[in-house]
Amino acid sequence: MQIEDVRGQTMGGDSTRRTVNRIVRHHSATETGDVWTFEQYWQSKGWETGGYHEIILRDGTIQRCYDWDVVTNGVKGYNATSYHICLVGRGSFTDEQERVFQKRIETWLNEFQLGVQDVIGHRELAAGTTQCPGIDMDVVRARINDGSGDPSLIQRGDRGKDVEQLQRTLISKGYDLPQYGADGVFGSETEQAVKSLQQDAGITVDGIVGPETRRAMDREMTLPTGIYRKGSRGQAVQHIQRALERIGFSPGPVDGIYGPKTEAAIKQFQKEHVPNEVDGTYGPNTRSAMASALA
Prior knowledge:
By secondary structure, the chain is α/β, with parallel strands linked by helices. The chain is built from 10 helices and 6 strands, in the order E-E-H-E-E-E-H-E-H-H-H-H-H-H-H-H. The protein has a 6-stranded mixed sheet. A hairpin with a 5-residue loop joins strand 3 (about 55) and strand 4 (about 60-65). It starts with a strand and ends with a helix.
């Protein structure tokens, strides 16, 4: 974990306490931001001290804003004994954020001698008057209760049926694993395939499979990267053929064989969408145009 310690640089922090009896999860309700941008809002509210002890940025970086014994302004009426952690996001968080949150919770539950039931969402304390923290806290507490971390996270070093299923899904979506295939071992090859999918989906590229990556994988049309042309074969070609069918350019049988009919369908698509590249080859420009047509 990368920790940016900004304690002593943030506003206020003069009121202290001796006890913490709950950890409160928040979201920022913004797509971006950090403690410095959030301070502008806090100052506009007339607060002397900010709202969060820690902020977990989109890339998983932790900003340590205040010592644990500082009283911050997270939830009115509950701040005297609450430790506040905020994830930057509007109800949707990166897999790296969830992984880091899990680790931080483990640390603080041990430090404060608390139980899973003491991890609370802002909304639960505010009687439903806010959408914060933008996630079902029963799900969050279930992850913590698992004891080994978030069961929905799959990452390098993991093994088993879940990894094998992940690998099969990656292959079916055109992210080839030529060296090891679906062997049930999450190694460097699988990690790179996951990163390629994340990059193509426009989400955080961290190689970790969590809720955000699963949503990207569940989309029906995740187009393969790479270059494919007449004579190419495999799951990636099959996925290209399905995409062509979806946007109204029949490639013939969806059989994973880049034959004359698939080549002709690509050329026809290119004539309409990539007129400067009518060569029958599926490459980056054609992929980008097809992705736009599928959106």
